[in-house]
Design brief:
two-stranded antiparallel ribbon, 74% helix, 3% strand
């Protein structure tokens, strides 16, 4: 090898070994307008919402904010009707998310055992998820109508003669079950994806060792898909906290405020009574609660990731 070839090879090795400087100039300039627009669309309304929560919003003659200090927040923490709405929201949240998780995981386990026709069954199962929530509410409203509703007719045959959406308890259970009917397929789909990632060799080893089915579920299946289930729980929790459509279409928050959860009361405060300052305080409280729920689940995911 000549001296020139040696020098060329050494230069080539140095060039390939040298770390490349990140190219952030052109890409950063291309992304900057979009990031600035996104920040403006997110930060400016948030700051306006904070300002409104400390003000009385005047709409006649143009929008005007009259500073009232902590009056809206004091009203929020002393409003008995608002605390009842929060209690209904928590009960609604626990019932819907709990039933959806239990039924979704159960349906996923059944589908996972199906060898033939699984795709067809899964397609039929996912149909409710693709319907708009307002359409689900209208469908549930007609099915529970005391005059011609199918569900009302079935319950009348079983001995229940009351109006489903006219009684506080039955109306609350009805909107919960409508939500469960629509979003259980989403949990089933996510859980089924998690089950498909469980190694078949592990399941076969458990079967060869003679482990009962419940032990396989408890010690192998559920630990393997726990992170997937936490993600599904996070997704549904964020949606259940602010759910509005089905309740508004079916009951408008009634009867006797039995289904008036916080999002419904927020809508009425803002767009029926035009008390936008108090509505801003309610909205910020909902945002804080959503962030708390999200951070709780993310922390659980981080802990599980560190312990594995």
């Amino acid at each position: 090898m000549t001296q020139a070839e040696s020098a060329l090879g050494e230069a080539t090795r140095r060039k390939t070994a040298a770390p490349r400087e990140p190219r952030v100039g052109f890409e950063g300039r291309m992304m900057a307008p979009g990031l600035l627009l996104l920040a403006a669309l997110s930060i400016v309304p948030f700051l306006a919402l904070i300002a409104m929560s400390f003000s009385r919003v005047r709409l006649l003659g143009g929008v005007r904010l009259d500073l009232v200090g902590l009056d809206n927040w004091a009203r929020f923490f002393t409003d008995a009707d608002m605390w009842m709405s929060w209690l209904r929201t928590i009960v609604y949240f626990v019932l819907t998310v709990g039933l959806e998780m239990a039924l979704g995981v159960g349906v996923a386990l059944l589908l996972f055992r199906v060898l033939h026709g699984r795709n067809l069954l899964l397609s039929l199962l996912l149909l409710p998820m693709f319907a708009a929530p307002s359409i689900v509410g209208l469908l549930g409203r007609y099915l529970t109508d005391s005059t011609f509703g199918l569900y009302a007719w079935v319950l009348a045959g079983l001995g229940y003669s009351g109006d489903i959406l006219g009684s506080p308890t039955s109306a609350f259970l009805a909107v919960v079950l409508m939500d469960v009917w629509e979003w259980t397929p989403l949990i089933a789909l996510i859980a089924l994806a998690g089950l498909s990632s469980v190694p078949q060799s592990v399941r076969e080893a458990a079967a060869v060792d003679g482990a009962p089915g419940w032990m396989t579920l408890r010690y192998i299946i559920f630990p393997a898909i726990s992170n997937v289930l936490l993600v599904a729980l996070l997704i549904r929790s964020m949606d259940a906290i602010r759910y509005f459509d089905i309740i508004w279409v079916t009951t408008n928050g009634g009867p006797a405020d039995a289904t008036k959860i916080v999002p419904v009361r927020l809508y009425e405060t803002a767009f029926r009574f035009f008390d936008l300052g108090y509505a801003a305080a309610i909205g910020l409280a909902m945002l804080a609660f959503s962030i708390f729920i999200a951070r709780t689940f993310v922390r659980l995911l981080d802990v599980r990731g560190l312990t594995r």
